[in-house]
Amino acid sequence: MALLALGPHRFRIEGLNYQKLEREFAGRWKEHFTANGSHVDQFLGATPRTLMLSGVLFPQSYGGYEAAVAVGLSIERGHILPLFSITKPFGLYKALSLRLSDETTGPGGVIEASYELELSSFQGTLYRNTLLSGMAQGVDGLISKASDTAAQLVKRLF
Questions:
Q1: What's the total number of domains in the chain?
Q2: For residues 119 and 98, what is the distance between their CA atoms, to the nearest angstrom?
Q3: Does any domain span residue 35?
Q4: What is the extent of the structural domain holding 97?
Q5: What is the pLDDT of residues 123-136, one digit of tens each?
Q6: Is pLDDT at 50 greater than 50 in this prediction?
Q7: Does some domain include residue 39?
Q8: What gap in Å lies between CA 145 and CA 137, rounded to an integer?
């Protein structure tokens, strides 16, 4: 059973797992200095929420290395992915970066690897470079398709 799903990527106890999930909430502020030397602070709004998943993989014993690389390919393709846990949906996220480091190697390859995955909530319009992507679909179609896919994933996972 999956503990967490990021689109087609499943985080389970064996294989691709995670030990820590961190959430970051932040706001943007602008400081304006006045002629008399004081200053005025202005709140510009919240920044997109970010999540950081991190964990340790044991590829020779439990697998998971290929699954982590597959997440990396989703990042390189610019996929917007629904994020779900067993208890609730988190919403749509864009995967920003994946750091995958081989901690211990042996005669058969990687024995232990660690990773950090940074996600940011998807806030609206998606502009795809049509030269890089053969699919040019509207935002409404993309969000509708992501919502349908997310509903199907929840049914299959939980």
A1: 1
A2: 9
A3: no
A4: 4-26+46-157
A5: 776 665 544 443 44
A6: yes
A7: no
A8: 11
Residues 55 and 17 sit within 8 Å (Cβ to Cβ): yes
| Residues forming a β-bridge with 91 | 83
CA nearest neighbour of 47 among 65, 23, 11, 13 = 23
Cβ-contact 69, 102 below 8 angstroms: no
Q: Which helix (DSSP H) or strand (DSSP E) does residue 68 occupy? A: helix 65-77
Spell out where 25-131 has E strands: 27-33, 39-46, 50-57, 80-85, 89-106, 109-121
Assigned domain for 20 exists: yes
Query: What confidence score (pLDDT) does residue 155 get?
Result: 67
Q: Is residue 37 part of a domain?
A: no
Q: Is the dihedral of CA 46, 145, 75, 153 positive or negative?
A: positive
The residue assigned the tokens 């393709």 is 77
pTM above 0.85, yes or no: no
Cα torsion for 71, 76, 80, 81, to the nearest 10°? 0
The label of the residue with tokens 């990021």 reads 6
Q: How far is CA 75 from CA 90, 94, 98, 127, in A?
A: 18, 8, 8, 15
pLDDT attached to residue 118: 92
